[in-house]
Amino acid sequence: MQEKESRAASYTTLAPGPDFRHEIEIKRSRFITVLRRAGTEETARDVVAGLRREFHDARHHCSAFIIGPDRDIQRSSDDGEPSGTAGIPMLEALAKRETAPGVADLSDVSAVVVRYFGGVLLGAGGLVRAYSESVSSALALVPLVRRSRLRICAADVPHAAAGRLENDLRAAGFVMAETSYTARHTVLRLAVPDDAAAIAGAAERLQLLTAGKTVLTPEGTEWVDAPLP
Length: 229
Prior knowledge:
Largest sheet: 6 strands, antiparallel
Radius of gyration: 23 Å
Helix content: 25-40%
Number of strands: 11
């Protein structure tokens, strides 16, 4: 069964790499925030399980995650803290994190806050602020990327003309995907934003470059990371 494409064609997520860790101390309690990129709910839950083993002597391992281009999977856990004082504030910190002015689209991220109790009770309000601040302060430092769905479009080109055409397309700012070959043609592939206007623009440019001799055929899609502007 083919997976249904998301409504969103792009979103912001963590840059690939190891866990990002950030620690704050509030009234002698240590709050260690661990952020990891997680594309599935299973991966997000594995993060929690691994940190339970690593920080086995900590009192709490509270968690929250948002997954999917449409951010349709959102979960949180207080892990023994009073209800609503840890997981939900953490989830809200993820959900409301602005990645551009007026834009909150962070996804595919798992956050775990490991707490070592320092002996001073913080109260419900203090816990909410502590867990929210823990995640927010970590997010302010973690490297982020823009993840966009690109439509792969193919064009059959005579072998002799393929090199020049590819150079012309690159010079025009198009991103080239994998090239393949048949007995008669070189199959050039372009990766363009997955919307009708972008695909139509690429097809028009190809027509101009080949005097109307080449047709652009949309194929599948790929998700590609790019640095934030």
